[in-house]
């Protein structure tokens, strides 16, 4: 397929505006551009065809099953989009006077209150733009807290090997030194290993619960107690909240600060359809440090205010506002009981699919999973040379988006499935049948799997070359 | 010059002048697959036995590289920054850092003992 720059023809354009009939007011010479930007020149019809063709080559939840583990690719109801497209939300400016955008401020205020209720937190900022940005924000709250207490020495952040993959990078960005601890044989946090690294330099612990192999940290109260006794705080990575939302609350488990992914648990688009949103919630002790500005309610009026010891802005203005509109729509559409039902269905779907495959595929554990399960293809690789990557590529030929692969690192040749609550039993049965067929192929005709995908428009991109020598812009020469 | 290995798949070659070279084993580069990025410490950085001093990134994952000894970084093999594939091509030749002021070390194994560890992992 030709790139848009290759389709460009000099002089063609989309005539969106009539010719200008007022005198032009040129920019000052020193700031005016000397050369026209090299943008593609196309008629509108060719432009829409180009993007429609790209759309046909992509795969989203509207095209088929998308069990990407740790990403919670649930269906995003159209009503979310309809609400976010309302002109009173879209035709406003972030610098408009507060009294003219009371409804939008109420959306932020309400969303914060509901999300606090769902997670057991006291206060929240909707500002962070996505999950890892939320992690950074939450960690900066922890840092500010220790500094305010005169304990700037507390820079050690413990991260179990079953935590979400972005945690070590976020901790590093926030100025902490990362200490990894290995999980116990059952895949959970090893309490003795945790105790061994708690000391007077402890800043906190980052935990994902359910963890990356899909099991619940049943010792969570004890874990929080150990960290708190050492003077540390406990951070909840909300990546896997979908397995427990409406059933249990991080705040009740003892967590001090959390981030949520509205684009995972709360049904806003994930990936290209984003942007994301990673609200950070906290207990009262951290609230004075929350990012600015916050929305507060004075009588019947909503207004912006700064937290007293705020860490400052984490993003321009108020976060990705329309994403919050979509998440609030989701919450108001399904309600409290709906959230609980959704989590239960997500867990049921996960265990159903896992059970349909566990007689042939090796599972990372044999307990009841929460929101996701992990297959290890290590044995298959040893026996017939078929890898997790081969199986992922083969799934493309069946119209199924592959699960997450090679993560978590603690499971070798990992395939990580998260079906979510919005998939029907027919879809799950189809996926199980496809996975069984691929398994048989692995043993009868492994070459077919090495050659997969056959039907996708792009087979196997050269990932190594792309990573070593990325071409990030069009070469005009 | 004898090569010794750590259980976490790094090698160390000790020179007669009290310095040592450190890299990752052939088994490690093979398990990681094609490397696309390497993150190295800086000269004069202190490194601690058993703690990460560098990381390597393949298309599959980012992995920490642990130091077999405590010491101070004398030299960094900057060639690897532009050409991480050298680690895949010749793991024993592609040293990451040269270290001095050697102190504590983790448990080290000779080639045969290390081969046995790898066989067990495989």
Describe this structure in words.
The complex is a heterodimer of chains A (477) and B (122). In chain A, 37% of the residues lie in helices and 11% in strands. Chain A contains 16 helices and 13 strands. Chain A has helices spanning 4-7, 44-56, 78-84, 87-90, 102-119, 131-148, 167-173, 191-197, 220-229, 250-253, 321-357, 378-384, 388-397, 425-444, 446-451, 463-468, and strands spanning 123-125, 156-160, 177-181, 202-208, 233-237, 257-259, 280-282, 294-298, 301-305, 362-363, 373-376, 404-405, 414-417. In chain A, β2, α7 and β3 form a beta-alpha-beta unit. In chain A, α5 packs parallel to α11 (321-357) and α11 (321-357) packs across α14. Chain A is globular, with a radius of gyration of 25 Å. In chain B, the strands form two sheets. A seven-stranded antiparallel beta sheet of chain B has the order 5-8-9-3-2-1-10. In chain B, strands 4-6-7 form a three-stranded antiparallel beta sheet. The termini of chain B are far apart. Chains A and B meet through α16 of A and loops of B.
Please report the total strand number of chain B as a whole number: 10
**Classification by helices and strands of chain A:** alpha/beta
Assign an overall shape of chain A: globular
When the domains of chain B are counted, the total is 1
Order of helices and strands of chain A: HHHHHEHEHEHEHEHEEEEHEEHHEEHHH
Query: Judging by the overall fold, what is the CATH architecture of the largest domain in chain A?
Result: 3-Layer(aba) Sandwich
Number of helices of chain B: 4
The greatest interface between two protein chains, and residues involved on each side, is: A-B, 8 and 11 residues
The average pLDDT of chain B is 93
Question: And the CATH topology of the largest domain in chain A?
Answer: Aspartate Aminotransferase, domain 2
Strand order of the largest sheet of chain A: 1-7-6-5-4-2-3
Biggest sheet overview of chain A: 7 strands, mixed
